[in-house]
Amino acid sequence: MAVSLKGRDFVSLHDFTSEEVRQFLDTAHSLKRQSTMGVMDRPLAGKTLGMIFSKPSTRTRISFEVGIWQLGGMGLFLSSQELQLRRGETIEDTAKVLSRYLSGIMIRTHAHQDVLDLAAHSSIPVINGLTDLLHPCQALSDLLTISEKKGRVEGIKLAFVGDGANNMVHSLLFAGAKTGMHVTVGAPRGYEPSAEIMEQAREDARWTGAQLEVTNDAEAAVSDADVVYADVWASMGQEEEGAKRLDELADFQVNEPLWQHVRWDAIFMHCLPAHRGEEVTEAILDGPMSVVFDQAENRLHAQKAIMALTM
């Protein structure tokens, strides 16, 4: 039975039960069907989402701004350079002030602790649009995409290949753990996921039967995979490490030889932006196995579900 999620923060999928994650997915499916039919419920009429950006974005800003409008509300873009945060106002004070004006806050920033502090001191829902640790909105939209393409999520094997210590991997581990999707991370030594995240995800997986594994062998990671996932090797803030990462991650490129080890009907996913010729070849990214643009579209529908249920 559905439970009310109104007023809840959306910081990490780890914070929700498997049933609540399913509720987000069911709502996203429903809202997407309505959009396809040209039907628009407006459950957030008269409500306003403040969108704080410390990191630039294409998909996050547009999908949230369009999404809140389609739900009947309004999105307000708040650059960190334009807020008093830049001049030293505390997150606590900012949270309390914004709570008097807004119905919800989405924040995309570097430090995960900033999101936790904002949520702790806000009296309105806070949505994590991305931090250096987690990217839960993307992971939820990925679950939506996989369920559409494969007809299910439980029992599916997703293999992530590349930098296993990034925010996308951490959120995919939680996504798998909550839904019974098996996640294997193929990464070179020194690029494995956070030990703390792995411990939390494995605890979650005890309830769903999800298998979570880490290997330093790319071929072993993608063996019989239903879904292969890649992300850029140098995220925002890591550009100075670019040359070093290109060298150390070279054997973990998703390319045609690696694709020979996946299931015949496997799909390729990437949260974008992508660097063709680095983490993935053009033939894979732009090939028939790629669903990256369906995946990008689903950011809109998944985030509409988050806003509709929490705001």
Task: Write a structural description.
The structure is a single chain. The protein is of the alpha/beta class. It has 2 domains: 13-134 and 298-310, Aspartate/ornithine carbamoyltransferase (Rossmann fold, 3-Layer(aba) Sandwich), CATH 3.40.50; 141-295, Rossmann fold (3-Layer(aba) Sandwich). Helix content is 42%, strand content 14%. It has helices at 18-36, 59-70, 91-101, 112-121, 136-150, 167-179, 195-205, 218-222, 242-248, 256-259, 282-285, 292-310; strands at residues 48-53, 74-79, 104-108, 126-130, 157-161, 182-186, 212-215, 227-230, 267-270. The strands form 2 sheets. It has a 5-stranded parallel beta sheet. It has a 4-stranded parallel beta sheet with strand order 2-1-3-4, with helices on both faces. Helix 3 (91-101) packs across helix 4. It is globular, with a radius of gyration of 19 Å. The protein starts with 17 loop residues before the first helix and ends with a helix. The model has no long low-confidence stretch (mean pLDDT 95).
Question: Which strand-content bin applies to the residues?
Answer: 5-15%
Task: Report the mean per-residue pLDDT as an integer.
Answer: 95
CATH architectural type of the largest domain: 3-Layer(aba) Sandwich
Helix content: 40-55%
Low-pLDDT stretches are none
Can you summarize the main beta sheet?
5 strands, parallel
Give the class-level CATH name of the largest domain. Alpha Beta
> How would you describe the shape?
globular
Q: Structurally, how many domains make up the residues?
A: 2
Instruction: Look at the structure and name the CATH superfamily of the largest domain.
Output: Aspartate/ornithine carbamoyltransferase
* CA distance, first residue to last residue: 20 Å
Oligomer: single chain
Order of helices and strands: HEHEHEHEHEHEHEHEHHEHH
- By DSSP, the count of extended strands is 9
Number of helices: 12
Gyration radius, to the nearest Å? Answer: 19 Å
* Widest β-sheet, arrangement of strands: 7-6-5-8-9
**CATH fold title of the largest domain:** Rossmann fold
What structural class do helix, strand and pairing data support? alpha/beta
